[in-house]
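Data card: per-record layout.
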Amino acid sequence: MSPELTSILVLVVVFVIATTRSINMGVLSFAAAFGVGELVADLDADGIFAGFPGDLFVVLVGVTYLFAIARANGTTDWLVRAAIRLVGGRVALIPWVMFVITGTLTAIGALSPAAVAIVAPVALSFAARYGISPLLMGAMVVHGAQGGGFSPISVYGSIVNGIVEREGLPGNEVFLFLASAVVNLVIAAVLFVVLGGLKLSGREGDRAGEREAGEDPGLNPARITTLAALAALVVGVLAFDLDAGLSAITLAVLLNLCWPDEGRRAVGQIAWPTVLLICGVLTYVGVLEEMGTIAYAGNAVGDIGVPLLAAVLLCYIGAIISAFASSVGIMGALIPLAVPFLAQGEIGAVGMIAALAVSATVVDVSPFSTNGALVLAAAPEVDRERFFRQLMVYGGVVVTAVPAVVWLALVVPGIG
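The structure for this 416-residue chain is written out next.
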């Protein structure tokens, strides 16, 4: 068996063991990365650790630490009540408000993970307070971020349009943006119906908030300072392009210095099992990249002589790999792979590029992607193992269904 196939088989075994034996998948993945890296790929420790997502580790720790302090001193509760009053107490509007907020942030230039890191903790606090499905709320945040993620001035849009221009392919910035926006909007609408959003339409949250406000101290120095810290996080990330993780952990440390009791409790609320799980899986994916497994799969598809079949397989490869790795990196690799058969003129380049872009980003609801991991880590008062399984199943549904749908909608009509 080739090294590439061996590494894929080991990944399957890791999933099976983690699912059937309730062992943290991150621990298993670290062990698999060591075994495959040393025995199969002949990598040293530096090569194995090359895939460790240090930036994501800091984001997960920093954001969950900061919002754990905000929960401990009552700031998130205050935010929830204030936002409920702003929407007139209509609980059913809350998921859509979060969808629009994250979509707007990414459309004007915020990185998708940065927008999710800012919005998800507040959105999941709403879900916990008002009995909204955390899967619904988390998915609305992620799909909102991806819905706005391909505007002509966005990070993803600029990257894809730049690759298209560099490869000499015809492109359409507006079509790319609208394709992603419409797909994510449709998915969000379906989820809203399936996960109980319609049942929220008759509920009002402001009355409960007003009753609680009678016992609540409202804004106090700790909450005012925490709100200022959250505002500083938003401004720093969006206006000054600061790293979301480093900014969040620095602000959390400053709050900890001022109010050590809340800070001490908050450290224990950092989502350490989630951090271990995500970092372990992505370290193993890094080993796959180092040993050429991902390139091996992409090249095998690129050699297929049937352009339409190669197109749908590339969409699936982009979706599957992106569920565990960088969406931007996958798009950068897949679009050049599609150049040979796009040059033949049998498939429309504009539709194919949009299908690849959507397939590689819509799956970011997976708990192994940055956005999905942030949603998992941000959810308060949930059974994390159960929520992880829900995100994994939903991510699997998206990986299975969406590439075929966008292929039919965007690629097949463009057959030359």
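Known properties of this structure: Residues 206-214 have pLDDT under 50 and may be disordered. The two ends are 39 Å apart (CA to CA).

See the next section for split statistics.
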